[in-house]
Amino acid sequence: MNNTEKKVHEPVFHVVKRDDMPLWKAWLIRMATIVVSFFIVGFLSIAVTGQSFAGTYETMFSGVFGRLFEGHTTMLWKYLQEIVILLSLALALTPAFKMKFWNCGAEGQALMGGLASIICMIELGDKLPYGALLAVIAITSILAGAIWGVIPAIFKALFNTNETLFTLMMNYIATQIIAYYVYIKGGGSNVINPVSAGNFPSVAGNDYFVNIAIVTVITVVMYIYLKYSKQGYEISVVGESQNTARYVGINVKKVIIRTMIISGALCGITGMLLVAGKDHSININSVGGQGFTAILMSWLGQFNPFIMVVMTAIVVFLRIGVAKVVDTALLNSSFSEIMVGVVILMLVGCEFFIHYSIKFKHKKEAGV
Questions:
Q1: Number of structural domains found in the chain
Q2: Of 101, 136, 100, nearest in space to 120 by CA
Q3: C-beta of residue 30 within 8 angstroms of C-beta of residue 350
């Protein structure tokens, strides 16, 4: 035995979960973080472009809203449309994420919904009345997304497979199916010309109104479903603890499968909005990676559809606004994504410090 005791070196700091922070204080921190992040984006843009701070944000506002103050609202409606596309994906992911089923397959599920839409538009466009065609497009898109979503859910419920890897692989399969279909229908050109049959109608000359109205309704319904329905309660209990859910008599396998049917179906609706309500065509980039951004929107929105509206509006504003700065200054297009990433990183960090604190040990306690 050595007479000299070995000193046990403990970590200098450790992370501790906070007690519930008052709601007003948490939101004050979030608002301050958003303001600071906008200042950072502005200063980084100034450093790269050489514009003034006011000039940078004037460029961003013009890129998002156009000549709104002169009565031109087209850019505003386009902005709202971009919000609802990202928001609809975030809403689709929320039930699964609240259940702690890590659905990373929104991209593929939306693509399959869009594929169902474009097939109906091409194959049935001249065979069905307009109203019946829209109904068939809606039903098939919802079914396609639901089927693509429920496949990994069944494997998770029955065989406890890893849903993250499974849904990511399903994205890849969906992308290749779309690529093959586009190649066939595009005559080998990898492009399908815009299809006129089955497009959503304009309302008072506005091509974006239907998409916005649909997602507005979905937002309200999802809030009510998650907060007040029995199924929403079951989702919460399963997300907290599957053992507790089983103890109180909830069929966990049934909840997993049912919730992913809903999640996939909502992604299928997003695919329909992209094809029948926006692009009138489809390709492997129709969703444009927004399925992964939607994961962050759902998480940062704390699974609350109305908070997600705010978070989505901020991210889309930055994406479009900084893209305008990039075009004006002739910068690389990646700059806008970098700025969006900076803001999201700050918001994620903000949420971390709202829920956790870092405790430093004194020198004696740390063994220094």
A1: 1
A2: 136
A3: yes
Distance CA 163, CA 46 (A): 43
For the beta carbon of residue 274, count every other beta carbon within 10 angstroms: 27
CATH number of domain containing 302? 1.10.3470
pTM as predicted? 0.90
Q: How do residues 124-159 score in pLDDT, each as one tens digit?
A: 999 999 999 999 999 999 999 999 999 999 999 999
- DSSP string covering 199-219: PPPPBTTBSSHHHHHHHHHHH
Place of tokens 């499968």: 257
| 1 in a structural domain | no
Q: pLDDT tens, 33-60?
A: 989 998 898 888 888 888 888 888 888 9
Element (H, E) at 15: strand 13-17
Cβ(290)–Cβ(122) under 8 Å? Answer: no
As a three-state string, the secondary structure of 55-76 is: HHHHHHHHHHHCCHHHCCCHHH
Q: Which domain holds residue 186?
A: 15-366
How far is it, in rounded angstroms, from Cα 238 to Cα 9?
A: 39
Tell me: pLDDT of 96 over 80: yes
DSSP string of 282-303, one letter each residue = --TTSSTTHHHHHHHHHHHTTT
| pLDDT above 50 for 368 | no
